[in-house]
C-alpha cells in the first residue's frame, strides 16, 4: 500500500510502499478514504511531542470502511464506514479508566503517534475505539469531526455555561465549535493573529458576532474563552478578557510556555483548565449532536502525496477550515 512515513524530526514525510497490515484480535483493518490534517500532526513531525513510535505513519482523523475483522470483533461488519480518533487504546484498568477518565490513562496509545495512522491506504485500529460515522457526512466532511470536532466539543463542555464565549485561534476546531456554541446559545467572539483579516472574515462567516486581533479586548466581558492557538502568551490575554468566575480553557495538546500571570487577573474566581485527549463518551455525544446543529465542515482537500504541502499550509496559517487528505475516492 501507499503511505507517507515519518522517520526523523525536521525531515519531510517520505512516500513509501509498505505491506498492508493485518488486524490482530479485537482490531479491524480499514480501507482509508480520508484523513484529516491536525495541528497535533505538526507537533509530532516538528518534534514538540517527543514520544512517537518511529518509523510512523501519522494521521488520526481517519474515515474508512472495514476491510477485515480481527478475531473477536462483533461490533462492525465488513464494509461499515467508521471513524478513528486520536485516542487509539487504553489499559481499562488504571484509576483513570475505572473512574470514567480514560482520556487521562497513563498507558493510552494514540493514533498516528504510537499506533500507525491514516496517512496511508490502509490502517489497523482497535475496534472498541472506532465510531460509526453519522449519515449525511461525506468522507472529507466527516474527517475533521474526529479530532477538531471532538476536542472542540470537549473544550466547550469544559467552558461550562454562559452567554459570551471567546475563541483564540480560528482554525479547524474553532470553526466547528463556533457552530456548536451558537446552537447552544453562546455569542462567539473570535481572536486571530493581528494581520489575519481572512481568518476574521471566516470567523464572522461561521457565526461569530465579533472578530479581532488576539491582543484586543472584546466589546463585552466574556464568560469563558477557549484557546486553540499553541501560544502561551494568550493565556494572560484571555484571563483579562473574561469576567469574574470566568474560565479559560487551553484546548491544545502542546503550547509554548505561559508567561508570568499577575494575580489580579486570576483573582475573582477565574480559572484555567486544560483539555487532554478525549473519551469515547465524548465521541458518542458529539457525533450524535453534529447532525442536529447541523455542523458544516469547511475542508481543503489534498491528495495523499501532498501531505507535506498540507502540513506546510497548516504551519503557515494558509489553510482555511480543516485540511483533509484524500486517500481513496471510492
Q: What integer is the average pLDDT? A: 96
Number of strands: 17
Strand count, sense and barrel status of the largest sheet are: 7 strands, mixed
Helical run tally: 10
Protein name: Zinc-dependent alcohol dehydrogenase family protein
Family: Belongs to the zinc-containing alcohol dehydrogenase family.
Keywords: Metal-binding, Oxidoreductase, Zinc
InterPro entries: ADH-like_N (IPR013154), ADH_Zn_typ-2 (IPR014187), GroES-like_sf (IPR011032), NAD(P)-bd_dom_sf (IPR036291)
Keywords summarizing the entry:
330 residues; alpha/beta; Quinone Oxidoreductase, Chain A, domain 1; Rossmann fold; 2 domains; 7-stranded mixed beta sheet; 6-stranded parallel beta sheet
Tell me about this structure.
The chain is α/β, with parallel strands linked by helices and 330 residues long. The protein contains 10 helices and 17 strands. The chain starts with a strand and ends with a strand. 24% of the residues lie in helices and 26% in strands. Strands 3, 4, 5, 8, 9, 16 and 17 form a 7-stranded mixed beta sheet that branches. The protein has a 6-stranded parallel beta sheet with strand order 12-11-10-13-14-15, with helices on both faces. The protein folds into 2 domains: 2-147 and 297-326, Medium-chain alcohol dehydrogenases, catalytic domain (Quinone Oxidoreductase, Chain A, domain 1, Alpha-Beta Complex); 149-274, NAD(P)-binding Rossmann-like Domain (Rossmann fold, 3-Layer(aba) Sandwich), CATH 3.40.50.720. It has helices at residues 39-45, 95-98, 139-142, 148-159, 172-183, 197-205, 234-241, 263-266, 280-289, 307-316; strands spanning 2-5, 14-17, 27-37, 62-69, 81-84, 87-89, 109-110, 122-126, 131-132, 164-168, 187-192, 210-213, 222-227, 242-250, 271-274, 299-303, 322-326. The mean pLDDT is 96.
